[in-house]
Design brief:
The protein is built from 6 helices and no strands. The protein has 88 residues and is mostly helical. Helix 4 runs antiparallel to helix 5.
Length: 88
């Protein structure tokens, strides 16, 4: 997994996601891979795919702090409400 993480850091989002897709297909119980793919999805603007990966990571390991923090961050961005935008 460490060599995979190094490769992911050097790749763009789409290439990293494709690489992680292959890894997850071979290692469907790898919580860290789901979290990393979620982060790449989030960075690429694929919010629902990112949240899905975070939730899968938490289903596999409910105590995973990194996935929990990433999910909370994603939800806080989606829940952002600026009342001034709605009251001209």
């Amino acid at each position: 997994m460490e060599s995979l993480k190094e490769q992911i850091r050097l790749l763009g989002a789409d290439e990293a996601i494709a690489l992680l897709d292959k890894w997850i297909a071979e290692h469907p119980e790898d919580v860290e891979a789901y979290t990393l793919r979620g982060m790449k999805h989030f960075g690429a603007g694929h919010r629902s795919a990112a949240i899905g990966d975070y939730l899968t990571a938490l289903r596999l390991d409910p105590d995973n702090a990194r996935a929990r923090q990433a999910l909370d961050y994603a939800n806080s961005i989606l829940d952002y409400y600026n009342k001034d935008l709605y009251n001209p």
